[in-house]
Design goal:
The complex is a heterodimer of chains A (113) and B (116). Chain A is mainly β and 113 residues long. Chain A has strands spanning 5-7, 10-13, 19-24, 31-38, 42-50, 53-56, 65-71, 74-79, 88-95, 103-104, 108-112. Chain B is globular and about 45 Å long. The chains are: A mainly beta (113), B mainly beta (116).
C-alpha cells in the first residue's frame, strides 16, 4: 500500500481565496483524521470520520473550515475564505480503529499571504 | 476528560548515552498509550503502543516505553542514543471506552537532540 496520500504538498495562496486539501486514506481503514500543526499551537485535531461519517468536528476553528468524505477513499478539507492565520501544515491520518495506531500522510504546507 | 503532558520541550543527550522522553497522562478509565516520532518535513510515524499486558513495551528503532499506572506515566526510553534519533516525539492517549466517539489526544511534543 502506498500509505496515506495528500495533495498538494505545498500550497501558496492569497488571503480570501478558497483552498482545498485532499487526502486518500489507506484502503480498509475506517477512520480518517485531519490535523493542523503550527509552532504556536502544536498538533491540533480538526475533525475525524468513521466510515465516511463525521464524528467529532469540535476542533474545526470556525465556519470557514469544512471537511467532507464522500467515499471511503477520499476526503477534502476546505478553507473559504482563507486567512494568513490559517498558514500551517495540515496532516491527514487514517487508522483501522481508534484503538490502533494512526498512519499519517506527508502533510500539506499551506501558506496564506 | 482525558489529557496528556510532555513536560520537556527539549531533551539533549550525547550519542551513546541512554535517553528518556517523559509523558504523563490523565484518563477516567484504562488508557491506550502511543508514541510517535516526526522527522523534519514528514508526517508522524508510529513507534509503539501500550494497550494491555506487560508494562514494558518494545517498539521500532530500539525504543521502548514503560507504563506506570501508579504514576500515570509512559516514558519513552532507549539504552543508547543515535544522532539519527534526533526528531520531534509525541506521546498520545485515548481512553478505553466502548464508543466510536472516543478520540486520541496528542501531547505538545518533545524535541530530542542527540549530539555526536
Amino acid at each position: 500500500d502506498a500509505g496515506v496520500i495528500q495533495s498538494p504538498r505545498h500550497e501558496v495562496t492569497e488571503m480570501g481565496q478558497e483552498v482545498t486539501l485532499r487526502c486518500k486514506p489507506i484502503s480498509g481503514h475506517d477512520y480518517l483524521f485531519w490535523y493542523r500543526q503550527t509552532m504556536m499551537r502544536g498538533l491540533e485535531l480538526l475533525i475525524y470520520f468513521n466510515n465516511n461519517v463525521p464524528i467529532d468536528d469540535s476542533g474545526m476553528p470556525e465556519d470557514r473550515f469544512s471537511a467532507k468524505m464522500p467515499n471511503a477513499s477520499f476526503s477534502t478539507l476546505k478553507i473559504q475564505p482563507s486567512e494568513p492565520r490559517d498558514s500551517a501544515v495540515y496532516f491527514c491520518a487514517s487508522s483501522l480503529t481508534t484503538r490502533r495506531e494512526q498512519f499519517f500522510g506527508p502533510g500539506t504546507r499551506l501558506t496564506v499571504l | 476528560a482525558q489529557s496528556v503532558a510532555q513536560p520537556e520541550d527539549q531533551v539533549n543527550v550525547a550519542e551513546g548515552n541512554p535517553l528518556t522522553v517523559k509523558c504523563t497522562y490523565s484518563v477516567s478509565g484504562n488508557p491506550y498509550l502511543f508514541w510517535y516520532v516526526q522527522y523534519p518535513n514528514r508526517g508522524l510515524q508510529f513507534l509503539l503502543k501500550y494497550i494491555t499486558g506487560d508494562n514494558l513495551v518494545k517498539g521500532s528503532y530500539g525504543f521502548e516505553a514503560e507504563f506506570n499506572k501508579s504514576q500515570t506515566s509512559f516514558h519513552l526510553k532507549k539504552p543508547s542514543a543515535l544522532v539519527s534519533d534526533s526528531a520531534l516525539y509525541f506521546c498520545a492517549v485515548r481512553e478505553e471506552e466502548y464508543s466510536s466517539a472516543s478520540k486520541i489526544i496528542f501531547g505538545s511534543g518533545t524535541r530530542l537532540s542527540i549530539r555526536p
